[in-house]
Amino acid sequence: MEFLPGDLVLSTAGRDKGRYFIIIKVIENFAFICDGDLRRYEKPKKKKLKHLKHLGISDAQIKEKILCGQKITNSEIRKRIAHMLESDEISSPKGG
């Protein structure tokens, strides 16, 4: 599955393992991701694609704003992630 801006992903490696993020930009084998909380939109995390699990969920509102270059707030990102997790009933992974 191809990684695109606006997609919801799960981090599978690193100190942010088990956290959900939205992809902001994809360049070659890397994605720039944010969650609006620890990783703000202004300073996204650069992460290898192999360390992300694609969940097959995309947010059309966020995707459109990213592609059009419109302003996105961190609270909006947090709300959209929560909405996607709630509506698709994705269970939180058990970390440890």
What does this 3D model show about the protein?
The protein has one domain (7-87): SH3 type barrels (Roll). The protein is an alpha+beta fold and 96 residues long. Strands 4-3-2-1-5 form a 5-stranded antiparallel β-sheet. A hairpin with an 8-residue loop joins strand 1 and strand 2 (20-27). It contains 2 helices and 5 strands, in the order E-E-E-E-E-H-H. The longest helix has 14 residues, at 74-87. The termini are far apart.
Radius of gyration: 12 Å
State the order of secondary-structure elements, H for helix, E for strand. Answer: EEEEEHH
Structural class: alpha+beta
Share of residues in strands: 25-35%
What distance separates the N and C termini? 27 Å
**Main sheet record:** 5 strands, antiparallel
Number of domains: 1
Q: Give the count of helical stretches.
A: 2
Give a quick rundown of the structure.
It contains two helices and five strands. It has helices at 60-68, 74-87; strands at 7-11, 20-27, 30-34, 45-48, 52-58. It has a five-stranded antiparallel β-sheet.
Key terms for this structure?
5-stranded antiparallel sheet, alpha+beta, SH3 type barrels
How is the topology of this model organized?
Layout: E1 7-11, E2 20-27, E3 30-34, E4 45-48, E5 52-58, H1 60-68, H2 74-87
Antiparallel strand pairs: 1-2, 1-5, 2-3, 3-4
